Protein 1
Amino acid sequence: MVPQRLPLPRHSHDADCLYYIVAGSLTLGTETLSAGDGFFVPPNGAYAYVPGPEGVEVLKSRNADHFNIKFMAGNPAFWEKAVETVRAERPGWGVQSRPGAKSGPPPVAAE
């Protein structure tokens, strides 16, 4: 799961990637996608998305166990803001509710 309120910076990777939106929504270019939607990114296809107001939970599937990734945000101010955002959000990751959930932490998988 991508941390729900963090944008995914523009990047590409050398493997197919299929996304399925489990909960919440995201904006990919000019399209807003919601739970039940999905999208495909071919190898070396550059993309980015921004989570919706409630956040987003995605399931990713790739056709490779290992792949190379290339981030395209070369602006130091972008990365400084990204690090600041991660530091601010990280303490709450373990207790975040799923997008659209009323309250409480995400479910814990049975062992």
Protein 2
Amino acid sequence: MVRVDLTATGLIACNLEEANLEGANLTRASLPWGNLTGANLSKTKLHLTDLREARLIQANLEGASLQDTSLTGTILQEANLLGVTNVSIDLLAKAKTLYLAQLDQELKDQLVKDHPNLFEKPHT
């Protein structure tokens, strides 16, 4: 599904584990409570995308654009967030966890300083 256009698609509680969505357009897509564990979302356009409480464990979001994406309660454990664009500290601070996530150093330093709890090992 490389470069697929899923604009405004409703995928509530979907299972996209290990899906290859590299370069896809997920603008305004609704994926709350979805399972995207191990998914390849590199270079994906995630503008106004609803990822509330979604599982993105070990997901690859390298180079993805996260403009106005909802990350409230999102699990980004071990996710690759290197080179993400259109992202802010406030946006990432809404995630449930960033434990072992890969982040650009400047972004990580600020998050560790302001929100150290995001980097603690999640309770299982």
Protein 3
Amino acid sequence: MAVKIRMRRIGRTNRPYFRIVATDIRSPRDGRFLEILGQYDPLKQGVNYTLKTERVKYWLGVGAQVSDAVAVFLKKEGLIGGKRVKKAAAPKKKPEGAKKKKKA
């Protein structure tokens, strides 16, 4: 079973609130989860998240993937390291109808 650490919305309309959970990749965003690992309140000022660091380390150790949003919190806590690596841009292809320049 592939596991992902991601956020699950539990807040009401216009009052977002999220739980950070370990879940099966096939489960929907607000569906079934394996374990609650923390919480995030985007409307709170200052430190607006909490994490169970020991449990997060466990799930990372067994191969859980991390969503981009949760990765930000884990980097702040020092649980995952490194800078964000930009994906290499694909080389631009010339249009098929473009003419080649001839040297004189």
Protein 4
Amino acid sequence: MEGDRWLLLVPCPACGVPAEVTDRFSLPSTDGPAGHLSLRCATGHQFRMPADLLPAPCQRQLQAEEAELETVVVACRDISRVRHRHTG
């Protein structure tokens, strides 16, 4: 999904301090697209890694955020269509 993301912090894989998810992207795999993340922690570590390597609670948090963001995007599209019909 394109556009702005909300701040999501996960533990740094190297040191455990908070790390910000700075990018989300998919790469092709033999099983279809695989979700990946870019992380940067407060001490400067940077990672690009498969999303499924995050601890389970962090994966659930990421999935919940994606679902909530998708809901917001759909609602905004619906509002835009309604406004377009009334002004067009």
